[in-house]
Specification:
543 residues; HOT1; DNA_brk_join_enz; DNA-binding transcription factor activity, RNA polymerase II-specific
Length: 543
């Protein structure tokens, strides 16, 4: 500000862009007026939060030339507010000083699309040079008694540290400074990391705390005296001839119109800090309407600060009582939930014990049936004698039933019989052989596969109980079955990942994968498995 000219305001804006936009020096120099846009960030606090967005062109960290964005909001500290410095520099450049440039001619794109934001002092059609920028930063560092080898990069580093001190996370800072280059951050997340912007502006990173006591609303007539050309060009670009062609121009005019209010709300306080600044020679500051507003703005800023503090003091007892009531209600709800959970847990333990007992019994039966029956030699001899005697008795009864009824019965000693081979004798090698468990080859959808895996199909046990929770697992399975199981587990794994990431049931996750499978060129489970084996985690979670 000591230089008291347009170049000084330009360099102040450049430093603010480096700190609060975390921009490299080449990004600052290449910035164009047509790169400016803005919007109102919703739900940020009591004061309307203007968000200024800048489009970044290719640079050292953006060799591909894809569109990147930087953004900043109004700062709690007026003296370093990047939004006000932007409005101040543009007002001074367009309307103040010995040779103001005037408002850009928006009649055609060629007239203004390539106009630099930070222009050279002698030729406003050219961007400021690196040497000029470096000298300005070096002089500022000397005035602050700061010694560093980094000159043009120091503001970007300072911005990252300020954001960290304000409570922003490293990931948020990396996104704001364009140090993050993952697919998720580039293609899926927003380009505006709000927590970093809040931290840099001096507000709580959690949000809802954006309040500026100096945000006093000016009258519409006074607003139109700031950047007066906005209304003329807005009417022209909204005409049917230009309406579908000049989106960039309308975004630029919307931004300048938003800066009107910022300029009027902050300039009275800036005038107290720098009363001899050359822009105060502009006729606006001799206007009676502006003078009345300036006095009102200074007075109401003080009262707004006091009223805000008073409202906090009045709200604290009410808030304390409300929090206590909610805490008691939450504690009671927690106790009820905990009691229900304990009951469910006890029931689950009992069910698990019953299931384990049944499972152990089934395992014992399967083990017994899988072993051959071995009969000792003496028992085999006894069984053969009994078989022979029974055969002889059948023959005698068939030849003479009457004599057998009247004849006395004699006991036949078993030891006197021999052991002939008989077709009716017990074969030790005859026992029931159970078929090994195999997965169904007729399953053709993910939903059927999930049902087979969790509860089983057609009365058969589940794959999970046989191969993951069973006593032998895949040990007794054939190599073909093992390979088939492992391939199908790739699909099961994808179902579980979708369940976890989207907090849905397995059946719902299987249905999502079936929809994706049907869109494949070959809608089979094998084709889906091949796709899953090559897809990234983001692709799988996006089905």
């Amino acid at each position: 500000m000591e230089r008291n000219n347009e170049e000084g305001l330009r360099d102040a804006l450049a430093q603010a862009l480096g700190v609060y936009g975390m921009l490299r020096s080449d990004n600052q120099r290449r910035m164009l007026l047509s790169d400016l846009s803005s919007e109102i960030a919703l739900n940020e606090g009591p004061t309307a939060c203007l968000l200024v967005v800048l489009v970044l062109h290719s640079s050292k960290t953006n060799a591909s030339g894809k569109a990147e964005y930087a953004a900043f909001i109004r700062n709690k500290d007026l003296s370093v507010c990047p939004v006000f410095l932007l409005s101040l520099y543009l007002f001074a450049r367009f309307y103040c000083g010995p040779s103001p440039s005037g408002f850009p001619n928006l009649a055609t794109r060629a007239n203004w699309y390539d106009l630099p934001l930070l222009s050279d002092g002698k030729n406003r059609l050219k961007e400021v040079s690196y040497d000029t920028q470096r000298r300005a930063i070096n002089e500022a560092l000397k005035a602050a008694n700061v010694h560093t080898y980094q000159k043009t990069h120091v503001n970007r580093r300072l911005g990252a540290r300020l954001a960290e001190q304000g409570g922003a996370s490293p990931d948020e800072i990396a996104r704001a400074g364009h140090w993050a280059h993952s697919v998720l951050e580039i293609h899926y997340l927003t380009h505006i990391p709000r927590k970093t912007l809040r931290a840099l502006a001096g507000f709580p990173v959690e949000g809802k705390g954006f309040f500026l006591p100096r945000a006093v609303t000016p009258s519409p007539t006074l607003l139109r005296k700031i950047f007066p050309d906005v209304d003329k060009w807005t009417a022209l670009l909204n005409s049917p001839i230009h309406q579908q062609q000049e989106l960039t121009g309308r975004m630029f005019l919307q931004t300048i119109a938003s800066l009107r209010e910022v300029f009027l709300q902050d300039i009275p306080h800036w005038r107290k800090l720098f009363p001899s600044l050359y822009i105060f020679n502009h006729p606006l500051f001799a206007d009676e309407e502006y003078k009345r507003f300036e006095g009102e703005a200074l007075t109401r800023t003080i009262s707004n600060e006091q009223r805000y503090d008073d409202r906090i003091a009045q709200a604290l007892p009410i808030l304390h009582e409300l929090l206590q009531t909610q805490t008691r209600a939450h504690q009671q709800s927690f106790q009820d939930i905990l009691s229900n959970v304990l009951q469910l847990n006890q029931s689950q333990i009992q069910n698990q014990e019953q299931i384990k007992a049944v499972s152990d019994g089934i395992t014992l039966i399967q083990t017994a049936l899988s072993r051959p029956v071995i009969i000792p030699g003496p028992l085999q001899s006894l069984l053969s004698d009994m078989t022979r005697d029974l055969s002889n008795m059948d023959v005698q009864q068939s030849s003479s039933s009457s004599s057998s009824l009247s004849a006395p019965m004699y006991s036949v000693p078993l030891s006197s019989t021999t052991l002939p081979s008989s077709s009716n004798s017990f074969d030790p090698s005859s026992f029931i052989q159970l078929e090994p468990f195999t997965m169904s080859r007729s399953v053709c959808t993910v939903q059927e596969l999930w049902q087979e895996y969790t509860i089983g199909l057609n009365g058969r046990p589940s794959v999970q109980s046989q191969y993951e929770n069973g006593a032998h697992g895949l040990k007794d399975a054939s190599e073909t079955e093992k390979r088939f199981y492992r391939r199908r587990m790739g699909v099961i794994k994808a179902v579980k990942e979708l369940m976890k990431s989207r907090e849905i049931t397995g059946s719902e996750a299987a249905k999502f994968l079936d929809v994706h499978r049907q869109g494949l060129k070959n809608p089979s489970l094998d084709a889906l498995q091949n796709w899953l084996s090559k897809a990234s985690a983001i692709d799988i979670l996006s089905v």
